[in-house]
Each structure stands twice: as structure tokens, then as C-alpha cells.
């Protein structure tokens, strides 16, 4: 009896694997043949809720820090470039693993190796940052902060929990990228919503009157604990999605030749991808140094602006994760008209979105300023930034879509050049000059002007290219 049943049992898993592979093939074919608007909608909407939840959790964390006092808000603001660096590494790892998995024949072997690679990178990075945390913050201007001696112990414990959660957070982001690469947008969105929801619930729970009296934790430390618990729980859910929902086996022979070869390939792709991702946190760090020269209150205000900006740019940010999937696959299939149609629709949606956001933030700027901090300079600086910067976000949205599409079709050098010009040729020098001329207000105006200049540059380039194509066609 046992021998009669064994073949059926052994065939069950291969049949299940084939079914998963068939579903992935159907998803890919649908991206190439479905209605452009329908495909973009299906790729984007799940990610919209996922990214909204993720950045909302960060903003709520900063709000709880502001309730503790302006000193705690300023201290956390100093740590934001460090957190942005961790996020850049996480995104880079997700891109690397997703890219390799979509190209690999033996998905299961590479998935297990990728997770081990993720753990090693996360643990190494967390250790390096922890050992150099104080010098990094000093470089950002933390040494000039008058209340540094008062808030450093609690900030240190907060960062201890954040860095302890790095490995788990990286696993979440890598599995998020893998699910997207497989076309499972709903599963990817559920993963980020779960992580963000847990962080919000834990943060709120740890700030209840009972938790404040019963748990021997400082204010910022509570936020660190909430992030750690959310990351651990979400990483377990991520492994469940990978193993059960996608039927990816996580067995691996670490010392085998295939495993060593997979490690080498991951590392070779990891270096350039992460280097590209690190440009933004590097620019944020340099910008924080410029802002810190205007005083600790300017740092507190700028920290709030840095957390609001991703939410204001929510749709463009989501489209930079979904549009490249559409553009890359259709470009590879030589469907250039379909690619052009998709980009036009995405750009039109972003222009409408940013116009609405600019109006909402303009009319609600005073409430945001007072809501985060009642200290006059901080609240007025937040209000000023929310009246000026969002007007330039439409141009920035176009730049973001342009860069993501260049990467999707293999023109990464062009994408890199645009990013370098925006950040290091226009934004940073402009912010420095603005700070010298008109303080924090000068910095805000310089950043807005940089967005407009790059956007206008790309529009001019697109118009010139169209004129050239028309002349060639007429000849």
C-alpha cells in the first residue's frame, strides 16, 4: 500500500511547482497584451497601498517623537540620513535578488542563497553603522546640538533597536522585490502593509498610559522596540509567502559550486545597484549638514519635511516600482508604441496627482506645522516648506519616471547622469548658496528651483528628440 501511494506523493510537489510557473507565465503574457491602462492599474494599485502604509508608518513614528519634545524630534531628524542609507541598501538588495531570480532557471536554489546573502549583508552593515554611529551623527552636525548630552542615551538605545532589526527588515524588502518580480503584486503589497500596520499598532500601544507607566522604556526607545517587533514578525510572514504561496524551497548547499557561483553573481550586481541607490541618502546627508548650519530647530523642521515628501510623491514613487516592469518587458518584446503610451498615461496621472497634493499641502501647511511642533520657528519653517516645495514635485515626478524607465530599458548610464545632475550639480550647491543668502528659506527655494530646472531640461530634451525624429521621417 505504501509503495502504491509514494509515486502520487512524489509527483504532487512537481505538479504544484509547474502550476506556479504557469501562473507566472500568464502574468508576463498579460503585461505584454493587456490594455495599457488596465495593466498599469493592476500593477500600481496594490503597491499604492503598500508604499502608503510604509511611509505613513515612518511619518507616524516621527509624530510620536514630536510629542516627546522638540529635542527628541531634532535627535531623530539627525538619524534620518542613516535610516535612509539602510532603506537604500534594502531596496538595492531587493532589485538584485529580483533581477537574478527572474533570469535564473533554478529559482529555488538561488532564492535560498539570496536570503543568506541578504542576512550577511544586513548583519555586516548593521555592525558597521553601530560602531560608527556617533562619528556619523557628529559629521551630520549632531555635535552642535545643544541638547545632545540630554538626548544621546535615548537616541543610542533607539538606534540599537533599529539596527538590531536590519536583518529582518532586509528580508522583508527582498521578499517584497521577489514577489513583485514574480508578478504577485497583491502578496507584495500585503507584506508591506502587514509590516507597516504592525509598526503603527505597536508604536501606538507602547505610548498608551499603561505602557508608559509599566514599561521601563524611554520615548524614543519605545519607537525602536515597535520597529524591531514589526520587522521580526513581518520577516516570518515574508518567508511564509515565499515558501507556501510561491512554493519556493529554501534548501541550499552552502559549499556547493552552484552556491558559490550564485554568491559571486549576486555580489557583482549588488555593488553597482546599491551604489546607485546610495546617491540619494548621500545627498540627504550632505543636505542635513547644510541645514544643521542653520541651527537645531532647522534640523527638526527639515526632518518633518523629509518624512512628508515621500507621501506627497506617493504616486510617482509607486509608479517607479510598477512602470519599469511594464516598460522593461514590453521594450524587450519590441513594443515601443505600447511603452510610449504607458509612459504618457503614467506622466499624466502624476501631473494630476501632484497638482492636487500641492493644493492640499498649501491649504493645510499651517495645521501641519503646528501639529508637529508648536515651537514657532519649527512650525513656521514646516509651513514655509509645505507652501513652496510641493509646487515643484510635479517636475520631480517626471524626473523620477524618466530615471526609472531608463533603468528598465538598460540605459542606466543616462539615468545615473540625470540623478547626479539633480542632486550634486543643482540641489546641493543651490541649497548651500540659499543657506548663505537667506537661511532655511533659501534652502527650500533652492531645492524647489533645482526640481524645476531638471524637469525643464528633460522636457527640452524630449522636444528636441521629437523634432529630430520628425526631420528624419520627412527626409
UniProtKB/TrEMBL annotation:
It comes from the Bacteria. Keywords: Cell membrane, Membrane, Transmembrane, Transmembrane helix, Transport. The keyword Transport applies. The chain crosses the membrane at residues 30-55, 75-98, 110-133, 161-179, 191-211, 223-244, 265-291, 311-333, 345-365, 377-402, 414-433, 439-460. It is a multi-pass membrane protein. Signal peptide: none annotated. It is found in: Cell membrane. InterPro entries: MATE_fam, Membrane_Transporter-Flippase. This is MATE family efflux transporter. It comes from Pseudoalteromonas viridis. The lineage of its organism: Bacteria, Pseudomonadati, Pseudomonadota, Gammaproteobacteria, Alteromonadales.
